[in-house]
Amino acid sequence: MLGKTRLALAGLISLSLAMGARGVVSKLRVGTCLEGYAPMVITGADGSFYGLEVDQWSQIYRQLVARVARENDDILRDLVGDTPPPLVGIRGLSTPEAGLRALQEESLDIAFCGYYLTPERVSIADPTPPLLSSGYTMVTNAKVTPPTDMQLMANTFPKFPPNAMFAFLLLILLSFVYAHGIWLLESSKNSKISVTYGWGIFDGFYMAMTAASTSGYGDLVPQSFFGKILTGTWILTGFYCMCMIAASLTTGIVADKLDSPLVPTVTKPEDMIGLRVGTYFSAAQRTIDIIEPRVGRLIQYSSVQWAYSSLARGDIDVILDDFMNAKYFASKQPYGGKFVLGGDPFMPTDYGFYFIRPNATTHSLYPHLYRAVLDYSRGELTEVRKLHMGKWVTYDSQFSLSAEKNRIIERTLHAANNKMIAVLISVLFVAVVTTFFSMREERAKDKENKMLLNALGVGGSHGGVVDIYSVRLGATALFEQFDVNHDGHLELSEITDALESIGFNKVGLAEKLKKEAFLTGTPMDKEDGYWLSLSDFQSMMQRIALEGFASNDNHGGGFRGAPAELQHIFLILADLRESSQQIENRMDQVQSALQDLNDIGVMSRVREAVRALKGIETRPLAKYFGLREPQRQPPSAGEGGVSVGGVTVDAAIESINSQAQRTQAAQPNLRSRNNNSAAGAG
């Protein structure tokens, strides 16, 4: 098809050159508008004419010459000639009435200047076949609406720096949100996530990064049900952000969905109701009165340039224009890219040329002109016609302001980045301030716990492991120190004053002690006031040493959060040390009694019993002897033999022998229990 077109064009050019050699200028009088009517007719600075209809007339004239050359009619050949006639510019001919009047007066043979083919005009002059199909359309300013933050989150464009920055900031911001959520859900259940705000948020942020990057070290994993749900949701979100960053840093292939075709806001005649509508040709008012009278009066402009300049300035909202003219002005400078056409054309109509009708009869040349126009509009010259159309009306219905939109989107994206940076800085500032104050409170609470442990005498003992037996001994010493009244119990005021003296903050201390006593199971609110006995005070100090103050939501100086087995081992060790201490005390009493008995010759009888007694290490001596501890008295002689402390020697020896035999029988079981306890403590 294209080859045939080229051959036809070559033949036409050759024919034109051959005729041009004869130099017969056409006698046809062809007129157009002197002021021009773009894109149909445009007047150059030198007075020449160019435009869509000028190009069409040049091609149609060639077809007309070729047809007349095949006719045996010298009159027509002389009229048409072989050289195009000069175009006559007539001022005011842009109005169809003026052109038709010139044809009626026979001052012109052919007239064109963007004339519609209407029944009224056809009754005055002979029209050519339609050269163009057009209609009315609405032209509005091509406003680019900046995308919203949600659009920026859902779509990005290929420019690397802002896109990568946006994805990175989004990842950091959402990571902080996840860190707070996982800390709230996991800190009380997961021993690997710190209960302290600052360190807990750091653990959550670290967990967010490992999950989003799909590293999955496994050192921090959620334990609770809702923590697992939150982590699963975050993995998808964080992985999406990571993919956005990776795409920007590697291939840069990110779909620019924001650069979609412009969608006009005015697409139907009724959309113009209430808007300021302008036009530059009188027929538009009659048309709108028929189509949509509610639009009202149109603002009439004297020229197309004035109308489009007013639209660009915002003086009007819409221009009601011819579809072909609108396509031209919406794609050419200085208006190109500033306007957008709305909807499909309405009130369709056709463009064409008008030919003289002398004495109301058809001219003999008219049939040849009619067929020449048909040759141009169809057949092998269809491609030539498309070239003419593409040259002057190149507007694309999907035209988009790529450069302008990219600038606006980039500005919007930078603004969104600035907002996210501001939010991120605010979040970091709040996190740092909160961490600072929480850690300051933490240090204050740690200081109180350490002061209490130091006061109990166990602050640095046993490599940092709290010895409960030492705690009880220290609590006994503190009790005696705090009990200024020496009445056997500590009142609340005595405890608070004493703790304040070693460095405690007295504010809220009374309520803190009441809470500690309640949690220990030894409430202070007795019938006669708030006080604690020695055993109650020991129990409370033991609980604080193991777990820290209950009001301190941290590890404190104790061992809150340690396994229950470890606390049980501490209790067993304390029981063993207490039992050993009591045994040592009783052994001292037995050694003293035996020393007294040595003077009266019974030492040899009890030496074996003493050796057996020294093997007892886990229970108080009284538990095995079942005797009331005798008072220390000097040896005396009386009925029944020598007596010590009111007990005769014979009775003492008999009791010792019997108890020693029972002790030797029970000793293997006791040693087995001691070994089990020692293994558990290890």
Automatic annotation (TrEMBL):
Pfam families assigned to the protein according to its UniProt record, in alphabetical order: Ion_trans_2
Domain of life: Eukaryota
Gene3D superfamilies: 1.10.287.70, EF-hand, Periplasmic binding protein-like II
Chain residue ranges for the region called Disordered: 658-682
Entry's transmembrane regions: 164-185, 197-217, 229-255, 420-439
Domain called EF-hand: residue spans: 470-505
Record's signal peptide: 1-23
The protein's name in its UniProt record: EF-hand domain-containing protein
Species assigned in the record: Hemiselmis andersenii (Cryptophyte alga)
